[in-house]
Amino acid sequence: MKFRRSERIIYMTHYLLENPHQLVSLTLFAERFGSAKSSISEDLAIIKETFEKCGIGTLKTVPGAAGGVKFYSRVNNQDAKVFINDLCRQLKNPDRLLPGGYLYIMDLLGHPGIMNQVGKLLASAYADEKIDAVMTVATKGIPIAHAIAAHLNVPVVVVRRDSKVTEGPTVSINYVSGSTKRIQAMVLSKRSLKEGSKVLLVDDFMKGGGTINGMISLLAEFNASVAGIAVLVEAEYSDRLINDYISLVKLKDVNEKEAAISVVEGNYFSKGIEFLQEESK
After folding, report:
1. Which of 19, 71, 210, 215 has the fewest CB atoms within 10 Å, measured from its CB?
2. Cα distance between residue 35 and residue 251, in whole Å
């Protein structure tokens, strides 16, 4: 069956978007369409140019007989700013205010479109890092972790507060909460994480950083290392245990008496400014 170039490009675009960070050989497409590799290369050049122009992502070529192309999600500066500013606007709604200065965000965490964009932004920030897994603590961090992992094409590892019989043997640690200074427990199945893995840690709301610090201690039990730390919302906090992280939104102040919430951009642009500028040129 003969395929037109437009049909090949549509199929290859769909395939690459569905398989991010996966090495795809030109042979796969050449055999699928009965086309010469030179034609496939020209098609991929068109896809790459369009991806970068539209802020969708980029293609990287891996040379050699066993080479091919890999798709990496990217977000240009303008699109990222629009999304984060809209996120700030939604979080400023006084109806979100909860006792203790926390914000209700379950509606955002349950929205597939918002989570997909959150995942794309945070995955873009770590697109060039070697990441074997994304880790978070149950339960609110799970949607964010899955969204990021989908764009990085890696598994999700969920840390729990107590052991489950269905998870088999577990590793347990105690850690000190960064804000309340209480001692809490973390449990992870021994089968969840391979030794020596490079892990992206994810949290939905970070105040003192105790939860992240606990996950770092848990990684040490697996001889694993931190590849990065991604946070949806960080709160203004003077005695934070964690310094090197990326956040989308920062909660600066909450006035419960006046039901006023002060929310601004997180440190996303100051941390990821280099690749964002490059992709927006």
Report:
1. 19
2. 54
